[in-house]
Each structure stands twice: as structure tokens, then as C-alpha cells.
User: Fold these one by one.
Assistant:
Number 1:
Amino acid sequence: MDSDAARLLDAAEFAAQKHRDQRRKDPEATPFINHPIAVARILACEAGVTDIELLQAALLHDTVEDTDTTFAELEARFGGAVTGLVREVTDDKELPRAERKRLQVELAPGRSPRAKLLQLADKLHNLRDIARCPPAGWSPERVQEYFQWAAQVVSGLRGTSPALEAALERLWAERAAGPGLEPGPGVGTADVAQRDSQ
Ligand SMILES: Nc1nc2c(ncn2[C@@H]2O[C@H](COP(=O)(O)OP(=O)(O)O)[C@@H](OP(=O)(O)OP(=O)(O)O)[C@H]2O)c(=O)[nH]1
Ligand SMILES: [Mn+2]
């Protein structure tokens, strides 16, 4: 593959094909491909990333986890560096959910700098999505759990991107300042879950 633009668009087209039948969990059932595109956009536009391999990996980052794509397939089409990055951010779906979540926290500090950037952008987009409109059926407690778990993962990714880390801090601050969100018994998070913070 020749130019940077060609390599990037090849990854975008591949991801769009692979995710073509998937929707996000939000009530509007947004096309799933919006998420990898948004993660790549965050890296390019908010973190100033120009590294095409990393932007390709962002576009491809959920293909193995969430579709029939194999690492061998990625390797053949996009090469070892891009595949290695996707591998670093791919959860083992054979493991129980709680174990996958625990491993993300445990493994975050040891990730490569590029994988850390990708994970920061992934968490930032998912948290923005949840703050804007949580997945259908998620209770306020589940939303809160996701925010708390993401904070633990992000604490292992620090020192990677001042811009993305500041954006995450802003999200947590907005959430803490939201209506009815001060910690305390019986305080719900429904207000902020519905709030459009973007
Ligand atoms: N916020 C949000 N997330 C959605 C939506 N639709 C799908 N997702 C995906 O769901 C995952 C978070 O949901 P969980 O229930 O915590 O995780 P699980 O699917 O892996 O069990 C994220 O996976 P991931 O990108 O692999 O990241 P991670 O959370 O596993 O790190 C996210 O991309 C949506 O509408 N809003
Ligand atoms: Mn993702």
C-alpha cells in the first residue's frame, strides 16, 4: 500500500465491512463503525497524532474483539505493527467479563506508549457516549461502575497524552459537578446519565 491516505482509508473500509451489521448499544442504535472512526478522530484531532499505523489501529481496534476478524487476517493486510497494536487493546472474550475488566486495569501500565494512547482515546469516546446517552438498559449504578472502572484503567495510562488526560479529567469533573451527584446514600445518577454534556 502506498500513501498514508491510502493506508488509512484501507483500514477504514475494512473496519466498515467487518462492523457492517453491528450497532452501538445506545437507544438510537448508532452504527458501530462510528465508534472506531471517533476514536481515530480523537487521536488525530485532540491528541495531534499523525502516526498512520496508530490511526489505522484505532480504526481496526474492535474488529477482532467484536467480529470474525482474526489477527492473521490483519497481519496479512496491514502488517505486524498495526496488528500488534490491535492485539494489545483486544480483550480475550473467552474470559468472564469481570476477569477481562480486571485485566485491563492490571495490564494498562505495561502497555506500549502507542497502545496507551489508543486505550485513552477508546475510554474517552466510550465515556463521552455514556455521558451523552447511556446504553439501553444500563442503570445509573452500571453507568457509575463504568466511570469508576474506566478511572482505574486510565490511572495506569497516565503520562501519555496531556490533551486526552485533561479531556478525561474534564469529563469526571463535569460528572462530579452534575445535579444530584455528590456522593451520599441514596443519591442517583439518572440526571447526569441523561444530560447532554457534549
Ligand atoms: N459507551 C458505550 N459503549 C458501547 C456502546 N455500544 C457498544 N459499546 C461498547 O461496549 C463496551 C462497554 O460495555 P461493557 O458492558 O462494559 O463491556 P463488554 O461489552 O466488553 O462486556 C465498550 O467496548 P470497548 O470499546 O471494547 O471498550 P471497553 O469498555 O471494553 O474498554 C464499548 O465500545 C454505546 O452505545 N455506548
Ligand atoms: Mn472500543
Note: The chain has eleven helices and no strands.
Number 2:
Amino acid sequence: MVEKSVCVNNNVLVVDAGNTSIKWSLFNGDGEVLEHIQSATPPAFEGVSSIFFASVKGDQIDSHLCAEIQHHFPEAHLVKLAATQVPGVMKNGYLHPERLGVDRWLGIVACHFLYPGNTMLIDAGTALKIDFVTENGVYLGGYISPGLAMMRQSLVAGTGRIRFEDHEMGLCKGIPNTTALAVQYGVSEMLLGMVERQCRQHPECRIVMTGGDAPWLKDLLGLDAIYDESLVAKGGWYLGRYMTRGCP
Ligand SMILES: Nc1ncnc2c1ncn2[C@@H]1O[C@H](COP(=O)(O)OP(=O)(O)O)[C@@H](O)[C@H]1O
Ligand SMILES: CC(C)(COP(=O)(O)O)[C@@H](O)C(=O)NCCC(=O)O
Ligand SMILES: [K+]
């Protein structure tokens, strides 16, 4: 058990800006998570001396967000994280690392340091990502598909008559017999099928999960998996420390 650091001025803020939500995680000097929240705006965290910023939202939004964060924490030193940054003990096997989503990379970095071994990482966010890292810390790549909400939205956007209210979705024990349930369970089947196939093809892998839809996925499939809601942030802590101190 990591002892809580008594000094309140060397906390690290990791910002994980995804396409749906921004996660803010506060770490003490020992790497213990003190706070982990979702918020559209910077939270009133205290004692922040370093900020590690990771975003997949796009350059223009990122620059506005960084300016807002720096205004909120004027004394803190902000470092932007990217998938081109590799902690000495790992290897990024992506053909073009500069195009790899930093959230995917940070999840992999966290898996290597926290849950070592041949690992399949399932990140069920705006998009569903399934990524693979070897026990030696070599990132192999992975798969991207739309997440649940994105698939539902694409059916509404791409058709003239698929329309329903969120409250019409719910539990269905048999075959769906309404538009809302047909869409809800149809897109679920897509995601469940993808995850089940990958689990069958990689029985040797331990499974780590994160992302807003991960609890639903884990429970529905009864997966023997580690669920870590702050996995990406923890990867950001590790990579940020490596980039600022040289130690993994
Ligand atoms: N409180 C919530 N806010 C937003 N999305 C949520 C929430 N709870 C569950 N979800 C689900 O999680 C997905 C977003 O997960 P998240 O990991 O935050 O995405 P991202 O990292 O891509 O922004 C949404 O598509 C939605 O299905
Ligand atoms: C796949 C993603 C959109 C996932 O983002 P999220 O679901 O976390 O919002 C993001 O990792 C990304 O923008 N990737 C760039 C393309 C790639 O990883 O190859
Ligand atoms: K994400």
C-alpha cells in the first residue's frame, strides 16, 4: 500500500480528453490516485505542480483546452503527452506512431507497468479499442470500432425512419420488438461479438478493461478481466514522469 504523500504541493494532474468526456486525475508524488473525475471544465484540485495533458480531440480544441487549464493552474508546468514518446523499457510497434491515439498508448503503458504480461486491453469509449501488448512491453497494435452511442447515433443519422427516445431503451429478455430495443440490442450484439471473437482468438492474453462502457461489457460477457477506470490516467502519470524525469 502506497503511503499518502504528506506534501500537498507536488501533486500531478493528468488530463485525459476523449471524444465524449474529459477525465481529470490527481496523483500525489507517490503515484497514488487522489481524485478521478469527469468534467467539461478544470476541477478545483489543489497542490498541482505538474500537468500531463493527453487529448484525442484535435489540435484547435487542444490549444484552447490547454490555455484554459494553464489559466486555472498558473503555477503548474504543463507537458503534452503523445504516442511518439516511449518509456525506455517499451516499444511502440505502430507503423506510424504519430497517428496512434495517445489514449490507446497510455492505456498500453499503464498495462505494462501495472498489469505486466501478454495483455489485451479493451477500452470501451466513444470508440471501442482492443489493443495488444506483449509481456516484454512491445505494443503490437489493435482494432478500432464505433462505440455503443456512436453506433446508435449513426443509425439515426443515416436513416429516415429510425427514431426513438432514450427512455424507450431498456431491458429486453427475448427478441427485441420495438425500434429502440432493436437498435439498442443490435449495436450491443456488434460490440459483444467483436470482443468475444478477440477473446477466443487470444486465449493466452490477460484482459484489462477501461472506458465508460467497460463495466457494461465486462458484466454482460462475464469476462475474467481487470477493470481500471483510471487506467489511461495512470499511463499518463508513468509517461509524464518518464518525459520529465527520465524514470519510468
Ligand atoms: N457519465 C457518462 N458520460 C458520458 N458517457 C458515458 C457516461 N457513462 C457511460 N458512458 C458511455 O461511455 C462512453 C464514453 O466513454 P468514455 O471512456 O468517457 O469516452 P471517451 O474517452 O471516448 O471520451 C459513451 O459513449 C457512453 O456510452
Ligand atoms: C480511436 C480514438 C478516436 C479513440 O478515442 P476515444 O474513443 O477515447 O474518444 C483515438 O484513439 C484516436 O483518435 N486515434 C487515432 C487513430 C489511431 O489510433 O490509429
Ligand atoms: K478514451
Note: The mean pLDDT is 95.
